[in-house]
Amino acid sequence: MATPARTARKPAASKEYLFIWEGKDKAGKVVRGEMRAGGLTLVQTTLRRQGITVGKIKKQSFGGVRRISDKDITLFTRQLATMIKSGVPLLQAFDIVGKGSSNPSMSKLLSDIRSDVETGSSLNASFRKHPQQFDPLFCNLVAVGEQAGILEGVLERLADYKEKILAIKSKIKSAMTYPIAVVVVALIITSVIMLFVIPQFKKVFSSFGADLPAPTLFVIALSDAFISYWYLIFGALAAGGFAFTRALRNSETLQFTVDRLVLQLPIFGPILRKAAVARWARTLSTMSSAGVPLVESLDSVAVAAGNRVYQLATNAIHSEVSTGSSLTIAMQNTGVFANMVIQMVSIGEEAGQLDSMLGKVADFYEQEVDDAVDSLSSLMEPLIMVFLGTLIGGLVVAMYLPIFKIASVV
Predict the structure, then answer these.
(1) What is the DSSP annotation of 109-135?
(2) CA dist 185 to 189, 191, 398, Å?
(3) Of 337, 293, 307, 354, which Cα lies nearest the Cα of 168?
(4) Which three-class secondary structure state does DSSP give residue 185?
(5) Which residues of the chain fall below pLDDT 70?
(6) Are 307 and 272 spatial neighbours (Cβ–Cβ below 8 Å)?
(7) How far is CA 371 from CA 356, 374, 376, in A?
(8) d(CA 169, CA 243)
(9) Are 71 and 101 in contact (CB under 8 A)?
């Protein structure tokens, strides 16, 4: 009676395990392998039924491992495309890529997909069971490749696409990380000065018996307020950040407003706009070159730009194209695409080479983003120096003004 009770409780466990086993078959030959199961007993029983005398079993837990990143999916796509092109069977390709992955979560994902394919599911249907890792664009292209018998070519296009998108995302992150890091460090230093340094100066100045300069009095008042209400200040910032993040996640209107304001920023706005157009053009080019109809492609392209302004514009384009309008006219009506982009699309439509022209648009804007990010570092350095000089230097000068005044009197 105890055994069924234990069996009934096992499904409540949230962890899944990969067991690596070693043993001997009926002929006495040493064999090794892997098996995913809910417990050690199940692995032993399964191997015993297969006539294998178990020697060692090692359990690897998937709990607490790092998440699957875009880089993992991009690398998997390239490896799978290369292996299929080389003639490696699909299931064997999944085995090779899964065992070679350094991320256990990725290995588990590929094992799940392999199991689905092995039981008769199509590859794109197996991918659709994991929407967090494989978006509709990925699944739609794989479906086209399976139906047309050109899976290896589609996977190569997908690999190229994801590598280019990953590169442009990396460029944008590198452009944003440096100034954000500097601002955060400056705010931490300012907080330390307000909490610990200025009160020491205040004690020294209290023995002077003279009127302090206005900048010094202002900084001391700020320090007193910061010391008295620092928990309220940090609490309000944390609560405000949490509330804003939650509202941004749930409100499409707020998302559109933020994305529109981001595109209008003086320095970063043009870079983000070019990056959005590059991703939009690259995605539509990839879908078009794979033979996906334009109307269906626009469904996947809407999210690919990574900006709500371009997503809504793409939805409007989709509506107009569905009713018979040309892509050029529909893009022009949105007012978010540059004339160069519209002209290139127009030429592509007239010449029947839309995918090629969109690819050239993507290449041009990706190069523009590269150049802008490279020049941004040299532009940001003097701006950051001015910011730090004004913030930190202003505090230091304000606190030293009374000392300079005393020295001039002496």
Answers:
(1) HHHHHHHHHHTT--HHHHHHT-TTTS-
(2) 6, 10, 21
(3) 307
(4) helix
(5) 1-18, 34, 36, 38, 60-66, 208-210, 405-410
(6) yes
(7) 23, 5, 8
(8) 26
(9) no
